[in-house]
């Protein structure tokens, strides 16, 4: 926590001490105090209070509480500072009044009275300042944390499979000679995907309806490239408007299916099911053992993105027969 005073802190202190002087002036008037007491007591008390506050904010709290965490030392030094400056203020007030020495209490009672006086002088303004500093520190921390999350999300979003373009160009090359009409359709779908990726490069969540369109274009590329090796079905059980998922989530899940399942005699069946709060992708597993048994960077990145975006997590169930990934659907509030 930064305990140094800024411009708004000084303005707050001016308001607090201004109000205190006005209230004390009313009490002085009711008690019939002399005019000289107004001109001596109020400036002195204000000056000593500010000195005490500065001692706490610039020395005691940062040095002994925050840095060294010496709580006993902090407590003892705080008592000494409060007692000394509180007694000094009481003594100056005594001099500005009747100054009858026989009315001065013994030293122990006088120091005790000075301690009480100092806590009364700075207790409220110091407490208000510390609360303000804590709030400002928390706000700054949240801003930094939010910026860090945004940077991490952008980094994760940028980690697209580098072989994606290369593989699609190879497929397109073969289509140009064998099926020119399908090649045109392939180019169109590929351009739609890249247009979407460019449009959403700085967007962390997208509407589910647009993500489904991306998935349909991506499925077309997969099926064109691999023929009947992969079969996909999308089940929309609900109205998908006003629902969101992390940008490119379904594409990541489809990439995972192709990456870890090499077809044998039958095609790899994949069903995408959209429910009220969840999107499920379930694919039948190939009998052939994949070279990599890990979930891969795609799913790991998706896991991390969900942790950064919400308090919900994705669910992964890996059995002998099928591989299921369940991702939460994000519902944004109206204020957002």
Helix-strand pattern, N to C?
Answer: HHHHHHEHEEHEEHEE
Count of individual beta strands: 7
For the largest sheet, list the strands in their spatial order.
2-4-5-7-6
Distance between the termini: 30 Å
Largest sheet entry = 5 strands, mixed
- Multimerization state: single chain
Q: Strand content of the residues, in percent?
A: 5-15%
Enumerate how many helices there are, as a single number: 9
- Write down the overall mean pLDDT: 84
Helix content: 55-70%
Low-pLDDT segments, ≥5 res = none
What is the SS-derived class?
A: alpha+beta
Shape: rod-shaped
- Rg over CA atoms, rounded to whole Å, is 35 Å
What characteristics describe this protein?
single chain; 336 residues; alpha+beta; five-stranded mixed β-sheet; 9 helices; 7 strands; rod-shaped
Give a short synopsis of this structure.
The chain is an alpha+beta fold and 336 residues long. The chain has nine helices and seven strands.
Structure overview:
- The chain has a five-stranded mixed sheet, with helices on one face. A two-stranded antiparallel ribbon has the order 1-3.
- The model has no long low-confidence stretch (mean pLDDT 84).
- Helices cover 64% and strands 11% of the residues.
- A hairpin with a 3-residue loop joins strand 6 (315-318) and strand 7 (322-328).
- The chain is an alpha+beta fold and 336 residues long.
- It is built from nine helices and seven strands, in the order H-H-H-H-H-H-E-H-E-E-H-E-E-H-E-E.
């Amino acid at each position: 926590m930064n305990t140094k005073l800024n411009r708004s802190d000084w303005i707050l202190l001016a308001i607090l001490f201004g109000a205190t002087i006005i209230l004390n002036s009313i009490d002085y008037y009711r008690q019939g105090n002399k005019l000289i007491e107004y001109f001596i007591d109020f400036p002195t008390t204000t000056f000593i209070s500010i000195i005490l506050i500065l001692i706490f904010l610039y020395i005691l709290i940062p040095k002994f509480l925050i840095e060294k965490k010496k709580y006993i030392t902090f407590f003892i030094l705080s008592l000494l500072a409060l007692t000394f400056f509180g007694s000094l203020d009481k003594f100056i007030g005594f001099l500005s009044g009747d100054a009858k020495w026989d009315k001065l209490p013994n030293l122990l009672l006088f120091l005790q009275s000075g301690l009480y006086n100092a806590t009364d002088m700075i207790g409220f303004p110091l407490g208000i300042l510390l609360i303000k500093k804590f709030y400002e520190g928390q706000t700054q921390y949240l801003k930094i944390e939010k910026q860090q999350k945004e940077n991490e999300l952008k980094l994760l979003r940028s980690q697209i499979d580098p072989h994606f373009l290369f593989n699609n160009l190879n497929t397109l090359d073969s289509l140009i000679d064998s099926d020119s009409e399908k090649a045109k359709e392939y180019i169109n779908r590929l351009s739609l995907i890249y247009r979407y990726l460019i449009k959403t490069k700085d967007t962390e969540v997208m509407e589910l309806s647009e993500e489904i369109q991306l998935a349909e274009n991506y499925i077309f590329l997969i099926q064109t490239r691999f023929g009947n090796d992969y079969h996909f079905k999308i089940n929309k059980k609900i109205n998908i408007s006003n629902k969101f998922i992390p940008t490119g989530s379904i594409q990541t899940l489809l990439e995972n299916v192709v990456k870890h399942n090499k077809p044998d005699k039958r095609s790899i069946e994949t069903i995408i099911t959209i429910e009220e709060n969840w999107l499920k992708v379930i694919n039948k597993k190939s009998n052939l053992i994949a070279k990599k048994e890990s979930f891969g960077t795609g799913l790991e990145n998706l896991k991390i993105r969900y942790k950064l975006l919400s308090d919900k997590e994705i669910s992964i169930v890996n059995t002998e027969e099928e591989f299921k990934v369940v991702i939460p659907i994000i519902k944004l509030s109206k204020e957002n």
